[in-house]
Structure formats: C-alpha cells, structure tokens
Design goal:
Blueprint (H helix, E strand, L loop, with lengths): L1 E6 L3 H14 L3 E6 L8 H4 L6 H4 L2 H9 L3 E4 L10 H7 L2 E4 L5 E2 L12 E3 H9 L15 E5 L3 H11 L12 H8 L5 E5 L11 H6 L6 E5 L15 H16 L6 E6 L2 E7 L6 E9 L5 E11 L2 E4 L3 E2 L8 E2 L4 E2 L5 E2 L6 E3 L2 H4 L8 H15 L8 H11 L7 H13 L13 H9 L4
Parallel strand pairs: 1-2, 1-4, 2-3, 4-19, 6-14, 7-8, 7-14, 8-10, 9-10
Antiparallel strand pairs: 5-15, 11-12, 12-13, 16-17, 18-19
C-alpha cells in the first residue's frame, strides 16, 4: 500500500488527491493535512463571497474526501506539530500544496503606514479567515486606492462599492458587513502600470461592475488605444477591452460611488504621517517591448486606505528550499530535491500564483504520474496511522472530515437570512463545533 501525504486542502491539494486515486486505485492511502480545522483553502477564504457559483466546486472535492482511501487531518500545522522529515518517514510521498496565502510585499516608501493592506489580508477579512478576522480596515475616508489590474483588484473594488442589500445570498463575514455598510467610500481608484490591452481582468468580473446599484465604473477615453488595435487581442481579452470602452462611453451618471480605472500609473510612495493620507503615482508609458516605463511626471492622489493586489507568495516551511524571488518552493517539474526525495509540490506552491482554480487539476495529475514513476512499489510505511499516533503523543487534536461536516452544519445553521452560511472566524469556535454531535 502506498501512502501519500498532501499538505494543504485547497484546490491543488484536492486535485492531487483525486489524481492519486485515479492513478493508484485501491493501492493508495491519501491524507490531506491542513493547518486550519476547515478544508478548501482558496475556495473558502479567497473566492469572493458574492461568487457562490465558483464555490460550488467544493461538491467535487467532497466526492474525493468521501473516498475510503482519503483522510483529512485538519488543525495540524506542518513545521509546528509535525516536521517535513517526520512526514517523509511516515509516507512514500509528501506533496506540498499549500498555495500562496501571503501577500507579495509592496516595496515602496510608506508601505508600512497604517491603512496599507495586502489583498490576502483584506480579502481574508471579508471572507472570515481566522488570520485576518481582527483586521479593522480604515473605511472612514472617501477614497480608496487599489493597486493592481487583475481579478483580485476587481473583487476588492466591487466589495467596497456594493450597497448592503447587494450582499444578500453571499457568505461575506458578518463582522465585515457593518463596517462596509457604514463606510464613507465614494471613490475607488484602480491603479495599473500599463494600459487596457495589458489587464488580467476577465470579462465576467469586469461586466459585474456595470450592474452595481450605487456605483459606476469610469475609464478615461484618452487611456484607450485605437479601436483597430483590439483585433490583435485574444477573444477573452478583446471582450474585456470592449467592456472598458463601454464604460468610457457611458459615463458614471448620477451614481454616488465611482470605480475609476487609472491606467498608466505606477505607485512610487505612500504618503502620510501617522496613517495613509495619499498615494504618489508616476505616470507611465509603454516601451517598445510593452513594459511600463516611467515618464517622471508624478501625481498625489488623496486616499485613506491602500489595498495592494500585486500578487501572492507561498509561506516557507522548515526543511524545504524556497525561491524567494518567485515566492514558491524550489522545484523541478514539481519535484523538490530531485527524484528519490519523496517530496513534491503542486499548484501555486509549485508554479507561483498563476492560473485559475482549474489550472491546478493538470498539475495534480502530473504529480501523481511522477510519484508513480518514482515509486514503482510501496515501501511499507505507516502513513496516516503513524501520523495519528505521533499527533496523539503530542496532544495535537486533529480534525477529521466528519468533524468538518459538523462545523459546516453549524455554520449553515447560524447563517443570516438568505446567506448559505455564517463562517466561524475563531479556531476555538471551529473546534468546539466539531465536537457537537448534534450538528
């Protein structure tokens, strides 16, 4: 019997588990290990709360978790409760699938001022992630600057601009609803170094801005390239740029909140004495290779908060080589330490924060194939039984998938009207709910 440990129970972790099931059939036992008592990673705490259709992918993961050879060890932190070396002694293969939950640093002067927030923290706050439940973002000013031209920047802008009633049916954390409803935000500035043709925003997410009840998007006509240039774009990108052209043509009307796209602007400093008071941007132009080049012309935009949506990084784990420049684990085609090490990585932990949720599926299947090539026969290791014994000896309370079901039932039961769930945001609350057999 082969024993595979997968560290992380987000999309990459579940797709890797699914791939191992298909590759090895009845000759495998797979244990998903997560530092939180709850599974699903990015789906639970990264996908926007008003995008419930995307969260439905967890039904597929539930099928994987229900398979007899798969176990869930929640509330177990690798590097604290068990080391990588110990896992290597227990399992034939150890796959790092922890994603990239940390913000890429905003390396400009003033980035440490109160009111500068990374998107992982801000998104985690309104999604109820335990690490960010106490964030308390400053929403007392009229203007928020959002740095980035991807879908995360769109999510942040949309959440800031929505009217309270537009969160009906979402699973936004209760602690975020009140502050967002009373926020003074009247302008969201989305700052991008390059132009409309270089955005990483998809049509669906862009299109949502046109249907907000109290907010309207704004694009300056002067930022748009000639219409004929759109013909060279990929179809999806062309749709996105067409939407931007529509925003420019329609104007903002009389809606009280404006989502302003500021293209060709690079942040160079955050200004303020005791908190954020403004962001200084340098106007840019595209060079011959399509890169943003500074023009030397700067402008200060008054704002009370800055949300940096410039990318994510994996979190280091003791005993594993880490590529600090790329923000991921050092690997070659998913192998950490070369063939024979028994160590692998998948998803963002392998590639860095690129691609969609679905991109992690082929990653998982490739890793399963590599494990099969490296391990033609099992090595007689103890796997999850050995891990259970080790954790018991250390008085670590692991949460099983059945325990998670009790947590889930309790979250569903405490949901406000129209919401699918009300997440627990404290680890102790999750553990307590996992003990309640009545759930």
């Amino acid at each position: 019997m082969r024993h595979v440990a997968v560290i992380g129970s987000g999309p990459a972790g579940f797709y890797t588990a699914e791939a191992c099931l298909r590759t090895f059939g009845n000759d495998v036992r797979i244990d998903l290990i997560d530092r939180l008592p709850v599974p699903y990673g990015l789906i639970r705490s990264g996908v926007a709360p008003d995008h419930q259709s995307i969260k439905a992918v967890t039904h597929r993961y539930e099928g994987v978790a229900a398979a007899q050879p798969v176990r869930f060890f929640g509330n177990v932190m690798v590097g604290r409760d068990v080391s990588v070396e110990e896992l290597r002694g227990l399992y034939d293969a150890v796959v790092i699938a922890t994603g990239a939950p940390a913000d890429r640093p905003l390396s400009i002067p003033g980035a440490d001022l109160p009111g500068v927030i990374g998107s992982a923290a801000f998104v985690g706050w309104y999604n109820g992630h335990p690490d960010h439940a106490d964030l308390a973002p400053p929403l007392d000013g009229e203007t928020v600057a959002v740095i980035g031209n991807g879908n995360v920047a769109l999510d942040v802008a949309r959440i800031l601009a929505k009217a309270p009633e537009e969160f009906e049916g979402s699973d936004i954390a209760r602690h975020a609803l009140g502050p967002l409803a009373s926020a003074r935000t009247r302008r969201v500035e989305i700052l991008g170094r390059r132009g409309p043709h270089q955005i990483a925003m998809t049509p669906k997410e862009l299109g949502e801005l046109a249907h907000l009840s109290r907010a309207a998007p704004h694009v300056a006509l002067t930022d748009l390239p000639p219409l004929a240039d759109d013909a060279a774009l990929e179809p999806g990108q062309r749709k996105s740029v067409t939407l931007l052209r529509g925003f420019a043509a329609e104007g903002t009307g009389d809606k009280p909140v404006v989502i302003d796209f500021r293209f060709f602007t690079a942040p160079v400093a955050i200004l303020g004495k005791d908190r954020v008071e403004a962001i200084r941007i340098e106007h840019t132009r595209l060079d011959a290779e399509g890169h943003a080049a500074g023009t030397g012309e700067t402008e200060d935009i008054p704002c009370s908060m800055v949300v940096s949506c410039i990318g994510y990084r994996s979190i280091t784990i003791a005993g594993l080589d880490y590529d600090d420049r790329l923000g991921r684990f050092t690997n070659e085609n998913g192998r950490i330490g070369g063939a024979g090490s028994g160590l692998y990585c998948a998803g963002w932990a392998r590639r860095g924060p690129t691609g969609t949720i679905g991109t992690n599926r082929p990653d998982g299947f490739q890793i399963a194939e590599e494990i099969a090539a490296d391990l033609p026969a099992p090595a007689g290791k103890t796997g999850g039984d050995g891990l259970t014994a080790l954790l018991t000896a250390r008085d670590v309370e692991a949460v099983s998938f059945a325990d998670w079901r009790r947590i889930e039932a309790a979250e569903n039961a405490r949901a406000r009207g129209g919401a699918p769930r009300e997440k627990f945001v404290r680890l102790a609350e999750m553990i307590e709910a996992s003990h309640n057999v009545q759930n």
